[in-house]
Amino acid sequence: MKTTHADINDGKRHDIVVEFISQRIVDCETTPVQRLVVADSSETQFTVFVAPDNEPLRGLQTGEQYRISGLVGAAPVVADRYIDEDCPQCGGTVRPGSVADRFSPGIQQVADQLSIEELFGIIDAETVIQPVSEENDTVDDWVPMTTGSAVSAPEYVCTSCGCQLDEHELYGGGQMEDIVMDAMESPAQPAANASMASQETVGLAAGGAKDVTNFRENVAAGHTPQPEAISDEGLFYDYYFETGHRAETDALFAPRYAAAVSDHPITGETEQYLSVGLDSSLSVEDFQRPRLDLVAVLDISGSMDSAFNEYYYDQHGRKQEVEQTAATKLEAATESLCALTEQLHPEDRLGVVLYDHRAHVAKPLRDVGSTDMAAIRRHIREISAGGSTNLADGFEAAVDMLVDGKSLGDVEQRVVFMTDMMPNTGTTAEDDLTRLFADAAVEGIHTTFVGMGLDANAELADTLSGIRGANHYFIHSAEEFKQRLGDEFDYMVTPLVYDLSLELEADGYDIAAVHGSPTDDEATEQLMHVGTLFPSAKQDGEARGGVILVRLTQTSPDPDVELQASWTERDGSEHTEGVSVTVPDAPETYAHEGIRKAIALVRYASTLRSWAGEVHNRADSATGVDDWLLPDQRGQHEQESVPLVVPDNYADQFEQLRAYLDAEIDAVGDETLEQELDLLATLCDDAPTTPREVTDS
Question: What kind of fold does domain 5-171 have according to CATH?
């Protein structure tokens, strides 16, 4: 929807296409003012003034169209709003202030001379004017962050000396008496402009984490990662899983079930498992992602200007100095965002929000086909960082854009955050942030988080990406993200299944734990829930990340597992099916290699989470540390570095785990698991077993 004169609001900035009609220089008591007459897309003519501090506009051609970005709306002063009070400086007449007064007294004087009674526009130094070419109708609609902010009117202005006054200056702090001012009704806010044949099916994987990159890179850099950085679903997504025999179904989602009994390599306990293979009946050639309304939200706060491979805060909570030559998180984020724009189709719509302590709509929502994307990418690369981090404000600006510009039909509305996930101003409480994102998801607005840097907050990312339709990635470099985008962008933005529930229907077993879903901690003894399933790639018939693993507790002799599965698919259809699964009696019995691989990875991840959690807890409670934080230092979501340490009890467990995984690699025939052996080798062979001495150097 195109912005017209009817959409202009007092004090707001607007992006509008106009036809130039005429211009003249109008003399007044102070300084000459250039007045333009333009027409909007509905052929409504209105006035635009050029602020006297600007050079007069030259070369405008009658009948030609121009895009004005950052045009300030201004309401004229109504004559009967003048008040019966003298200026305390010169004794002159005082009137309520107008937006025009912020630029020059001459603009309001000329508006009075010309008896302008409708809202008019003001062009100032922050306004950008570009001709709209018929030969090339793409638009560079980028609005620099210095623009877009509202312009407030002064409370009062003297018509004689031009001084601007507030209520205290005019009335000496007393109450206003017998003053009646008719509020002008503001027009409604404008809506955003809109300017392989194969029988192989698409696999499925749970939402939430899509990698454990942050965990691996922290270990490699000599830091103890946050325990949440190695979630089960993130680790699963590094591997392909056999899911079992294909089910005959008319539904899109085709779950497959298998059972296993296995002895734990460290505790020696015999454990019983049920796997849910995540498969679909949707063929690869029939998969097509929906049209996208995508708003990229870029964190440009001060921490984003820190080195990508270092912590913004050291282990004492003090900010680290950044070498000028070091690659920053912001550089990786801007390059990643540019790479993301390359994945969009002409009919997709893109918006961009920048945020530090406040949010700024840098690019309104517009279809890619009519946007000068090369210019937009140039602007993205010019962004600089600084300030605090108001993540909630950035998200709300994105949601407002999507709600105002809502499309009809099957359109995926998605917000893609590029951030180190360290909000420190505005809404920061985890429960409040979760509620904010969950409420948007109810309205069909889903979120992808792209975590930047070693110190990205895995805990907050893990929490928020468990919301319906959400997922998250951690990246180590822009090149890595470009590769992932090329491989799986369409899958990343297309949730296919919602609200998968699996309920045990008969006595005999309870659910002890669920692995592979960001909502696994919500499981009860009889019910598990997975919020979202996304499509995933297949390799030799195995689905990437295509498994949910359930550990069972037997409560009666010789039972079968009776299940009731239910879910909702993207088209809104609801499905339910019942199934019976027999759990084997003998230990080390696996229905197939997929469930065996999943069990090994769960044991590995669980041990590493336990280790990382214990080390972080010890660091938090350590004595002898200067833990005094200045008022502007680390907030609750800002991560400080913790040195890589392996206590003796975990060194023994890692050696046992190493031998176990080595045997499982041979058993399941997956050599890619050797990367986990390499990580364990780092922990067993290179990491100190006692904390490093804390110094004040």
Answer: OB fold (Dihydrolipoamide Acetyltransferase, E2P) (2.40.50)
CA distance 663 to 593: 13
Q: Which residues, 6+ apart, have CB-to-CB distance to 557 below 8 Å?
A: none
Name residues whose C-beta falls within 8 Å of residue 647's C-beta, 6 or more positions apart in sequence: 611, 614, 615, 689, 690
| Cα gap 223→692, rounded to integer Å | 12
Q: Over the stretch 43-61, which tens digit does the pLDDT of each residue have?
A: 999 999 999 888 889 889 9
Q: Which residue has the tokens 């007449």?
A: 93
**Residue 35: beta bridge partners?**
24, 49
Q: Is 427 helix (H, G, I), strand (E, B) or coil?
A: coil
Mean pLDDT over 71-95 rounds to 79
Q: Residue for token digits 């008591």?
A: 29
320 DSSP 8-state letter: P
Q: Output the six-digit token pair for 114.
A: 């010309």
Name the 3-class secondary structure at 352. Answer: strand
Q: Among the listed ranges 256-260, 294-298, 314-318, 557-561, which one has the minimum average pLDDT value?
A: 314-318
pLDDT digits (tens, 9 = 90+) for 376-434: 998 998 898 887 888 999 999 999 999 988 777 789 999 999 988 887 777 878 889 99
Residues with Cβ within 8 Å of 364's Cβ and at least 6 positions away in sequence, in order, are: 15, 141, 143, 192, 193, 351, 401
pTM of the model: 0.74
Looking at residue 80, its pLDDT comes to 57
Provide DSSP, 102-140: GT-HHHHHHHHHTT--S-EEEE-TT-EEEE--SS---B-
CATH code given to domain 290-312+322-492: 3.40.50.410
- CB of 497 within 8 A of CB of 204? yes
Domain with CATH 3.40.50.410 in the chain: 290-312+322-492
Contact in structure between 278 and 543 (CB atoms under 8 Å): yes
Contact 48, 121 (CB under 8 A): yes
Cα–Cα nearest to 195, from 409, 64, 7, 371? 371
Q: What is the pLDDT of residues 165-182, one digit of tens each?
A: 766 566 654 333 332 233
Task: Please compute the mean of the pLDDT values over residues 138-143 and round it to a whole number.
Answer: 77
Beta bridge partners of 260: 273, 590
Higher pLDDT: 328 or 252? It is 252
Q: How far apart are CA 310 and CA 291, in angstroms?
A: 38
| DSSP assignment of 208-275 | EE---HHHHHHHHTTBPPPGGGG-HHHHHTTSEE---SPPP-SSSB--EEEEEEEE-TTT--EEEEEE
Helix and strand counts by DSSP (H, E) for the chain? 13, 31
* Residue listed under structure tokens 């949601």: 399
CA-based max dimension of the chain: 99
Residue 654 to residues 191, 336, 364, 513, Cα–Cα distance (Å): 57, 36, 51, 22
Look up tokens 């949910």; give the residue: 548
Residue ranges of the chain that CATH labels 2.40.50.140: 5-171
User: Which phi and psi angles does 223 have, rounded to 5°?
Assistant: -115, 150
Structure tokens belonging to residue 350? 């893109």
Range 625-631 average pLDDT: 51
